Prior knowledge:
Number of domains: 2
Distance between the termini: 39 Å
Helix content: 10-25%
Order of helices and strands: EEEEEEEHHEEHHEEEEE
Strand content: 25-35%
Bound molecules: FE2/S2 (inorganic) cluster
Amino acid sequence: MPADSPEHRWFHLCAEDELATANAFVTTRVGAVPLVAQNLKGRVVAFRNVCTHRFAVIHGEASGCGPLRCPYHGWSFDADGVPVGLPFNPTDFQLDAEGRKRLALHPASLARCGRLVFVRVAADGPSLEEELGSDAFARLAALSAAFPRRGGAVEADPDTEGWERLTVANLDVAWRPGHALRLHSAAPPGAGERFTRTAIFLPATADAELPA
Ligand code: FES
């Protein structure tokens, strides 16, 4: 995996409210690697979305809510990625605690910018702030704070007058002061269009202060 490959880059995944409840998950794919971020008992963690038993994809949906459990033989994994629920373990797998740890899911990187969640395949590398640049990182964090409420039916055409634009990683960020923030994240390289996402956020109040 070359150091400049997509697997070494951060990609915007979702806003943290999508992972706020127990077992909520959001998936994506970077190159050939499926990724999942999931809330497991209050911890939001990211892994390769691939079972370590026979390498099945664990969560096939782009997002949802449910245990981190492989659909094939039913192994379920905890927030450390360790398989903790193995149906028929005494007869079929016979894995003790050490054996289970060896079959922990491969971790992925997860970082936040304000209320926005980013993931990366590589476990090590530059921080999200280093990769985005401190100015863009601060700007994006301030925007996410200025528009905390999720919206759905707001008219949002960033090509009309009054909208401002910023491109950060795979994110097209557009906002109209006092009106709305639109986040459009392109699917990472190798991912299908179903991993392209658009979300609208609204200011806390109609006269909320906007970041400079
Ligand atoms: S392939 Fe996942 S539990 Fe067997």
